[in-house]
TrEMBL record:
Entry-linked PROSITE patterns: GUANYLATE_CYCLASE_2, PAS
Residue ranges of every copy of the PAS domain listed in the record: 242-303
Domain Guanylate cyclase, chain residue ranges per copy: 395-525
Pfam families noted in UniProt: GAF, Guanylate_cyc, PAS_8
Name listed for the protein in its UniProt record: Protein containg PAS domain S-box
Record family assignment: Belongs to the adenylyl cyclase class-3 family.
GO MF annotation: an example: adenylate cyclase activity
Classification lineage: Bacteria, Bacillati, Chloroflexota, Anaerolineae, Anaerolineales
Gene3D superfamilies in UniProt: 3.30.450.40, Nucleotide cyclase (3.30.70.1230), PAS domain (3.30.450.20)
GO biological process, one term: intracellular signal transduction
Amino acid sequence: MTEHTIQINDAPIAQTLSAVELLARQIADYFKQKRPASIPNQVYEAISQLQTQIAILNQRVSHLAQEKRQLSALTEVSQVVNSSLELDDVLQVVMDTIIRLTQAERGFLMLRDEYGNMVTRIARNWEHESVDATEKAFSRTVVNQVIDNGAPVLTTNAQQDPRFSSQESIISLNLRSILCVPLRVKSVVTGVIYADNRIHSGLFSTHDLDLLAAFANEAAVAIENARLFASVRETLDKVTELKNLMNNVFDSIASGVITADMEEKILLCNRAAERILGLTSLQMVGQPLQSSLMPLSALLEPELEKIRSNQQPIQGLEARPTLPERGQVDLRLSLSPLNGVQHQSPGFAIVFEDETEKKRLEAQRRLFERMVSPAVIQQLNPEKLALGGKRQQISVLFADIRGFTSFSETLQPEQLVSVLNRYLAAAADAVLREEGTVDKFLGDAVMAWFNAPIPQPDHSLRAVRAALSIRSAIIALHAELPPSSQLSFGVGIHRGDAVLGLVGSERRLDYTAIGDSVNTARRIQENALAGQILITQDVYAEVADAVYAKEATPILAKGKREPIQVYEVIGLR
């Protein structure tokens, strides 16, 4: 804190009066020793009176000079305390000045805290140092009286003052001269100034009391201003902290957020909005929405007009604009009015959800679901993918297009794929209607199974129904295709154990079924004629009551030592 020194120079007047008083004394002494007879008695009396009057005048000048010094000091201190809004600095200047003016030994300044209690804010001694904790005891009786009555207290000797002489603190602390005045703001006592001296009696006068009371009023205002400033600064710090927190929260929001006024001038945007739109805040803030969001202006303008008219939020808008920095993106937008005073909105907010990646993943999933059964997909846990599988009894269906090899020699590849896809789609749809799993397409053949991954007690019957549906679908397809493109499937179905799981490598996986039951179903299919559905003895035993079938010639399948008994399915009962 800056050291303030108050200087008052009345030396010329005091020196002149002292010189005149000395001269008068010398003249009087001269006449006492050598009194000329020619000088009348009146002259001697006049000189004696002049000496007395000069002494009185000198005392008055000295007293006035002291008052001037005190008033000048108070004026300067008032300027100091009113020029600072730092409460601790103000308190220290006030207390040091009081001690200097009153020649007190100690000074205490107490203020009300937030609970209304008087708390010592500063305690100083005549050396302009903070009072040691062991020396902070003072007369609370005097302080409480000032607080309760709102009137100043002066005692020249508290030990003999009947108001306080019986108080224990006065006696134990050996207090003598005490001066205590209230601090008032708008007639409310907000604190007290207390000064004392434990050595000298009669140190303070009524003049000191009046002077200190006048100063206390101005000091109280300065202290209150400093307290208000500290409170405002604390509030501002909290507001700043809250604003920084809100900015951090605003920037951490994953969704893009832009706020604009009713004239559609952008006020704020967060980092997510910058990332989604491919623009910086410098390019957007302060600019019209139409120029910053040109690809979205056609969508936004009518919706913003609705918000102006009805002040209701709008959600779930979808847009697929082409942005200069990102290309085509998928966005989901929500618009809402900003809350204002008296239901008058100062603007609106636009929230952007970037669904580009989500849409891409959804498209990939839909494609994956067309390649792999949705039931299989649901069984896969991306967190626990591992090669291998589990043993499961299934019904395996193989369906192969007959005559496709020779047919492919007559068409261009593009035409061939187009026709092939129609036949394979008919077969796959028939399998999926029976909740089977299409394992894969093997050129012009389809492999599917039933009873996995979802258990199906009637899986063999489902496989047979799927085969009959394939045959019916092919007949319907022939009505749409030219005779040259009319082909047929041969179908083989077998029931048995297989291992279902992931095969391949960590970079390329395939979810499939492996086992002798799969090979047997394929061998049966290879021996089926166009439009023929062959099933093994095991399958027939499960579906005999539900289908019409006839025994067919046993098949000598490759890799089998014994012929395989098969049945041709005619239809459902």
